[in-house]
Amino acid sequence: MWPVSVKKLCAFCFCASAFVFLIMTFQVIEQLGQFEENTLRQKLTHTPLQDPVIVWWSPLTGELGRLGDCGRNRCFFTVNKSYHSHPHTKAFLFYGTDFSIESLPLPRHEQHQWALFHEESPKNNYKLFHEPLITVFNHTATFSRRSHLPLTTQHLEDLSALRAQTHLLPLAYKNQLRRTLAPVAYVQSHCDPPSDRDVYVQELMQHIQVDSYGQCLHNKDLPPHLRDSTAMDDHDFYQILAQYKFILAFENAVCDDYITEKLWRPLKLGVVPVYYGAPNVRMWLPDNRSAVVVDPNEPPKKLAQYLKWLDKNDGEYLKYLEWKQKREISNVNLVRELKDRPWGVHDISQDSFIDAFECMVCNRVWENIHRQEKKLPSKVWRAEESHLTCPPPELFEFAVSPSSSPRQIWRASYEQSRREARALGRMLRRNRNFTVTQFWREVFTD
Ligand SMILES: *[C@@H]1O[C@H](CO)[C@@H](O)[C@H](O)[C@H]1NC(C)=O
Ligand SMILES: *[C@@H]1O[C@H](CO)[C@@H](O)[C@H](O)[C@H]1NC(C)=O
Ligand SMILES: *[C@@H]1O[C@H](CO)[C@@H](O)[C@H](O)[C@H]1NC(C)=O
Ligand SMILES: *[C@@H]1O[C@H](CO)[C@@H](O)[C@H](O)[C@H]1NC(C)=O
């Protein structure tokens, strides 16, 4: 009996190890295969044969070469500027904040479409906000609702983030906290921006108590672990803010549709935002009674009186939180916008807005390729002034300060940017490359 069993056992062991060996070999072969496929793909990305090439004229994505699928269409995206003269190059993508006159892909060929992506604050590059410059682009993705790919809600994840009551505190508790806390909180560390908000807030503080945690008008400290700007999305920071009745949500610039997390954060927490920024903010609020909207033509004292009145009248204050308590978002425009936007925020199951922008351009490039194949005239896209527009920055009149004050620079900077935009517009239409010196000469002969 024994010898037979041992033989069987040995046979079994042999078979088993052979099996394991085989599996491992297959895995290695498969990995090698994948490796080869990857290198092949990498090679392909350096010599795109038939796909249109789209060049990022900015290091934004850092991608040296990627074949990207956009539905049924495919394009080759690269930050490698040496593709400027490649015969398959159909479009250039620009990032507003680093759009610079020092190097532009000129001359621009008939087939070169230009696309502008600008989601940041207007103050980062005022030049683009003037008709002669914005209209040189074919495609736009900006905070403006009128752009080809509006990014107005870029700081809002979804409706459920607004409806959430995770941080909402009962009013009775907020009233108790009022013994140690001001009714209003302010958290800004970038002082004296174009909206002139600090001057307004400083005046407001003469008439109502404000706890100011940021560097601007600072009068209250955050716990040490929340002091750097990366802690702005920390749970502990949210808990501190959620204790307040009001948060000053003042944007750094005043332009229609320019809305940031400053508005959404208090709405998510269940605190009433006192909002100053986009004049058309009502188009975006979850409900007409969800924020106190500052009227810049009224003195801050009047706003202070209104906030104090709400602080004393629970019923009136609660009207601003009714939408939150019922989880009801009555603004159909906001609901539609979040449903229709082809990108997500902090959501790996959806495209990012950069993916969506790249694909919008890729699909439009393909649209014209297909039209050419069918001998149809090409479709023409043009950015309009409304795709990126902001009125000149204005100072609040109730405060005077010396002309050397940092708050004075924005208006001058805006006017200067208008001259630069006119000069650049003329030079781009002449369609020859130019040096920085030639550009400044053009600006000053204006
Ligand atoms: C950029 O593309 C060119 C070919 O157009 C290639 O020779 C060069 O190596 C690329 N540069 C980088 C940094 O990949
Ligand atoms: C909000 O109020 C404005 C006028 O102040 C009105 O035009 C708009 O229809 C209202 N929106 C909702 C959703 O009630
Ligand atoms: C892109 O814009 C330029 C300048 O306005 C225009 O000449 C060109 O026809 C446009 N191309 C397309 C495809 O829209
Ligand atoms: C314009 O571009 C050409 C070719 O890229 C270059 O040789 C020339 O020096 C450039 N001229 C100016 C004024 O930058």
Automatic annotation (TrEMBL):
<keyword id="KW-0256">Endoplasmic reticulum</keyword>
<keyword id="KW-0812">Transmembrane</keyword>
<keyword id="KW-0808">Transferase</keyword>
<comment type="similarity">
    <text>Belongs to the glycosyltransferase 10 family.</text>
</comment>
<dbReference type="InterPro" id="IPR038577">
    <property type="entry name" value="GT10-like_C_sf"/>
</dbReference>
<dbReference type="GO" id="GO:0000139">
    <property type="term" value="C:Golgi membrane"/>
</dbReference>
<keyword id="KW-0328">Glycosyltransferase</keyword>
<dbReference type="InterPro" id="IPR055270">
    <property type="entry name" value="Glyco_tran_10_C"/>
</dbReference>
<dbReference type="Pfam" id="PF00852">
    <property type="entry name" value="Glyco_transf_10"/>
</dbReference>
<dbReference type="InterPro" id="IPR017176">
    <property type="entry name" value="Alpha-1_3-FUT_met"/>
</dbReference>
<feature type="domain" description="Fucosyltransferase C-terminal">
    <location>
        <begin position="184"/>
        <end position="339"/>
    </location>
</feature>
<keyword id="KW-0472">Membrane</keyword>
<dbReference type="InterPro" id="IPR031481">
    <property type="entry name" value="Glyco_tran_10_N"/>
</dbReference>
<dbReference type="InterPro" id="IPR001503">
    <property type="entry name" value="Glyco_trans_10"/>
</dbReference>
<keyword id="KW-0325">Glycoprotein</keyword>
<dbReference type="GO" id="GO:0005789">
    <property type="term" value="C:endoplasmic reticulum membrane"/>
</dbReference>
<dbReference type="Pfam" id="PF17039">
    <property type="entry name" value="Glyco_tran_10_N"/>
</dbReference>
<keyword id="KW-0735">Signal-anchor</keyword>
<keyword id="KW-1133">Transmembrane helix</keyword>
<dbReference type="GO" id="GO:0046922">
    <property type="term" value="F:peptide-O-fucosyltransferase activity"/>
</dbReference>
<comment type="pathway">
    <text>Protein modification; protein glycosylation.</text>
</comment>
<feature type="domain" description="Fucosyltransferase N-terminal">
    <location>
        <begin position="52"/>
        <end position="149"/>
    </location>
</feature>
<protein>
    <recommendedName>
        <fullName>GDP-fucose protein O-fucosyltransferase</fullName>
        <ecNumber>2.4.1.-</ecNumber>
    </recommendedName>
</protein>
<dbReference type="GO" id="GO:0046920">
    <property type="term" value="F:alpha-(1-&gt;3)-fucosyltransferase activity"/>
</dbReference>
<comment type="function">
    <text>Protein O-fucosyltransferase that specifically catalyzes O-fucosylation of serine or threonine residues in EMI domains of target proteins. Attaches fucose through an O-glycosidic linkage. O-fucosylation of EMI domain-containing proteins may be required for facilitating protein folding and secretion.</text>
</comment>
